[in-house]
Amino acid sequence: KLDKFHRLRSPRAARELSLCVLYAGLVSGSDPLEVLEDRMQARRERVDEKVLDQYDHDAKSGEPLYVSCESEAKELEFQQEQQSEIDAALLTAHPCVVYNKFVLRYGKEKIIKATSEGREKQEAVVKELLPSTWKDESNGKLLETTIMHMAIAEIEVLGTSPNIVINEAVELAKRFCDGFAPRVVNGCLGNYFRSR
């Protein structure tokens, strides 16, 4: 998952970068490509290679955890805090320090561009797919809906295999959203793919 310069190089890393940029654009009301450009123009600070080595694309959030004693709970809390610090360091660092050229190019020229340009069409599709419990709080589900927008753009515009895209969208939801989001994202995108 790291190249010879200790930068993330996988398509999943491109999706994570794209998700962060698209979400930041939605929250700030800015064009996501401008958000990425602003991040690219920021001062570059090195990221410790150990932090990159410890970054885990597959870390899951939202899953219930059970412990048998207080010391076990404290150890688990400590580990989660360490992982959160690693995540925050990488997801807010200068993109050129963390991601290789493939990830930056694929994220910017493919995923972010396709998602941004097709936003209105995707919005109509996502609104149809959302469960009724989410429709009333769709602004509270921006991260989840952004994942679905990205997935629809990858399928429709980039022609990526729906099975790959849906799997990656579910993994992003497991990684960054709460407990029920992966199932909802999987169900919504599965329904979308079957209805095409």
TrEMBL record:
A Gene Ontology biological process term: DNA-templated transcription termination
Signal peptide range: none
Segments forming a coiled coil: none
Gene3D superfamilies: NusB-like
GO MF annotations in UniProt: RNA binding
Statement: the UniProt record of this protein carries the keyword Repeat: no
NusB/RsmB/TIM44 domain sequence ranges: 78-192
SUPFAM superfamilies the UniProt entry points to: NusB-like
Keywords recorded for this protein, A-Z: RNA-binding, Transcription, Transcription antitermination, Transcription regulation
Family: Belongs to the NusB family.
Protein name: NusB/RsmB/TIM44 domain-containing protein
Source species: Selaginella moellendorffii
